[in-house]
Inverse folding.
């Protein structure tokens, strides 16, 4: 099992070229904070509304795919369980609380982190989290 952040999960859901296939093996059994749902849905919204990367039908399919993963392939942990540690990480390392939540979860569960965010990857590694490369 690994911790997956929103950048990686959204890339999988939206089938972003180059990375989505390599991410697919990790999405079979992963864990994240419940906040990931809002972040990925926001990315789907941006892909439809702002980037016009997908059409309305594609946005609906992406939404349904995300929902189908929850509880089966993707386990969700309440973000409030990790908020104190995440806030500490964010203040000490000057990264967002959003990104820090995934690091805090990985630290607590002693699991690797899958992220496409280079700054988050660097901070996680500095804190002793194994980071999956795709």
């Amino acid at each position: 099992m690994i911790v997956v952040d929103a950048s990686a999960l959204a890339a999988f859901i939206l089938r972003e070229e180059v990375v989505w296939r390599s991410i697919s093996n990790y999405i079979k059994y992963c864990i994240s904070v419940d906040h990931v749902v809002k972040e990925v849905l926001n990315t789907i919204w941006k892909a439809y509304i702002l980037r016009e990367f997908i059409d309305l039908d594609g946005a609906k399919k992406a939404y349904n795919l995300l929902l189908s993963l929850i509880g089966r392939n993707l386990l969700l942990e309440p973000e409030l369980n990790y908020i104190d540690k995440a806030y500490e990480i964010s203040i000490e390392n000057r990264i967002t609380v959003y990104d820090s939540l995934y690091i805090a979860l990985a630290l607590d569960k002693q699991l690797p982190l899958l992220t496409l965010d280079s700054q988050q990857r660097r901070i996680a590694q500095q804190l002793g989290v194994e980071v999956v490369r795709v």
Notes: The mean pLDDT is 95. The helical segments are 6-13, 20-27, 35-49, 56-69, 83-93, 97-109, 118-126. Residues 2-132 form a domain with the Rossmann fold fold (CATH 3.40.50.1010).
